[in-house]
């Protein structure tokens, strides 16, 4: 009998668990928005150039990329609940280090602590969110990521207010750290205590045993199947996890990151440099992108119920690509602003769907995330360098430099949604092999 509850049937404690996971998503967004706006002041105190700060951020991002390679093993060994607990303490505990940093080395230590352990929290909370979402008639993954977006907005507003009140960075980040650790006291008791296995297991005698296996072929819906778990089947599942499905997830993570970072991080520069817009209008471009992402995520689950998860991804990539064209290539300020709003709406559903797919691949909980995270985080490091380098030449405006990266990413992102992968291995297929 399948240990997983059927879709649409909640188990005792699921409501409390969903509350905890929801708060964790929101809190994670608050962390991001609390230290990023403070970096200019921190840079001045540390005494490094903008280029030096870029190097520090790159080193911290690389640490997150390394963490991506370890998440599956760590979660398989300790479980998502323990990973959230320890990861939160170490990541949130690094905020005061960033706030009190007076040397580049101290700043690197703080940022590495933040971004390295954030990877583990990110995967663990998405695994729990995916498990809870699969038990509900209306999924919740898009709304959970919407709460992350609301957390960034809330954290950003608080940061603006404390800066206007002349509160020091040290006090601000220290108070945020204490508050988030207090929030963790609410989160931890409600988290799911066990993770559902997503791989065939064998008995010690080596005799096959029928166990339920859940798989999400990329390009297909959610399927459950009974297989005879022999060592051959287990090896086949392992090959599947690191084969075509991993490649598609890696490309999905890369293209989604390009569309999100390429639009969001460069929106203000597109308006201020290409249109000579005022600071207020330039800032509005990023705000509209953020609003679009938040609205799209909060409403994405109901759209998914009506059209299906893969159709939602196709729709999202198409809208994001169309919005990117409006934002980067149409030489009208108002149209560019509208384009960033549209791009945010389209981009909003991409990562929630990818995280959900990665969580449902065969294998131990969290083991399907490595390829997606590598694609996501490596492009997050590369894209700013590429767009910045192109925009720094006489041949490209900022918008054209963005378009060179964004439009191919949208095309590739749409193409991979049509890739159909074979179903999970069955005893008959393995025997025939």
Q: CA-to-CA gap between the ends?
A: 28 Å
Based on CA atoms alone, the radius of gyration comes out at: 22 Å
Topology-level CATH name of the largest domain: Growth Hormone, Chain: A
Largest sheet: 2 strands, antiparallel
Estimate what percentage of residues fall within beta strands: under 5%
Helix and strand run: HHHHHHHHEEHHHHHHHHHH
- Overall mean pLDDT stands at 82
CATH class of the largest domain: Mainly Alpha
Q: How many distinct beta strands?
A: 2
CATH architecture field of the largest domain: Up-down Bundle
Tally of helical segments: 18
Would you give an account of this structure?
The chain is built from 18 helices and two strands. With 433 residues, the chain is mainly alpha-helical. The chain folds into two domains: 14-189, MFS general substrate transporter like domains (Growth Hormone, Chain: A), CATH 1.20.1250.20; 237-416, Growth Hormone, Chain: A (Up-down Bundle), CATH 1.20.1250.20. The protein has a two-stranded antiparallel sheet with strand order 1-2. The radius of gyration is 22 Å and the shape is globular. The chain starts with 13 loop residues before the first helix and ends with a helix. The relative contact order is 0.14.
Provide tags for this entry:
single chain, 433 residues, mainly alpha, Growth Hormone, Chain: A, 2 domains, two-stranded antiparallel ribbon, 73% helix, disordered N terminus, disordered C terminus
Layout of helices and strands, plus pairs?
Elements: H1 14-35, H2 39-46, H3 50-78, H4 80-92, H5 95-100, H6 104-134, H7 141-164, H8 169-190, E1 209-215, E2 223-229, H9 231-241, H10 244-264, H11 267-274, H12 279-307, H13 309-329, H14 333-347, H15 350-359, H16 370-391, H17 398-416, H18 427-432
Antiparallel strand pairs: 1-2
């Amino acid at each position: 009998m399948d240990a997983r509850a059927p879709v649409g049937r909640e188990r005792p404690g699921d409501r409390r668990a969903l509350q905890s996971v929801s708060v964790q998503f929101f809190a994670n967004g608050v962390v991001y928005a609390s230290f990023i706006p403070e970096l200019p002041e921190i840079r001045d105190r540390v005494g490094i150039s903008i280029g030096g700060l870029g190097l520090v951020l790159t080193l911290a991002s690389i640490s997150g990329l390394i963490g991506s390679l370890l998440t599956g093993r760590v979660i398989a060994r300790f479980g998502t609940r323990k990973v959230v607990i320890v990861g939160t303490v170490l990541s949130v505990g690094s905020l005061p280090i960033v706030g009190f940093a007076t040397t580049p080395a101290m700043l690197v230590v703080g940022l590495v602590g933040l971004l390295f352990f954030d990877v583990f929290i990110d995967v663990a909370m998405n695994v729990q969110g995916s498990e809870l979402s699969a038990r509900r008639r209306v999924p919740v993954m898009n709304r959970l990521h919407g709460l992350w977006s609301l957390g960034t907005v809330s954290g950003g507003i608080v940061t603006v207010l404390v800066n206007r009140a002349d509160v020091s960075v040290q006090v601000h980040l220290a108070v945020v750290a204490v508050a988030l650790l207090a929030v963790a006291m609410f989160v931890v008791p409600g988290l799911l205590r066990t993770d559902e296995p997503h791989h065939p297991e064998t008995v010690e005698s080596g005799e096959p045993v029928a166990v339920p296996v859940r798989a999400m072929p990329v390009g297909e819906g959610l399927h459950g199947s009974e297989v005879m778990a022999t060592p051959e089947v287990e090896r086949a599942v392992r090959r599947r996890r690191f084969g075509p499905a991993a490649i598609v997830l890696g490309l999905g993570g890369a293209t989604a990151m390009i569309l999100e970072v390429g639009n969001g991080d460069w929106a203000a520069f597109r308006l201020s440099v290409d249109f000579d817009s005022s600071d207020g209008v330039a800032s509005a471009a990023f705000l509209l992108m953020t609003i679009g992402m938040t609205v799209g995520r909060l409403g994405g689950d109901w759209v998914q119920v009506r059209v299906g998860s893969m159709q939602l991804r196709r729709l999202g990539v198409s809208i994001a690509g169309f919005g990117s064209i409006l934002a980067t290539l149409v030489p009208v300020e108002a149209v560019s602003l509208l384009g960033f709003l549209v791009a945010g709406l389209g981009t909003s559903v991409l990562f929630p769907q990818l995280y959900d797919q990665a969580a449902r691949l065969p294998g131990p909980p969290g083991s399907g995330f490595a390829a997606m995270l590598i694609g996501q985080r490596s492009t997050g490091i590369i894209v700013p360098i590429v767009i910045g380098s192109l925009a720094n030449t006489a041949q490209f405006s900022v918008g054209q430099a963005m378009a060179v990266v964004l439009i191919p990413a949208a095309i590739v992102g749409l193409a991979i949604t049509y890739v159909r992968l074979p179903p999970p291995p069955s005893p008959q297929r393995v025997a025939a092999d």
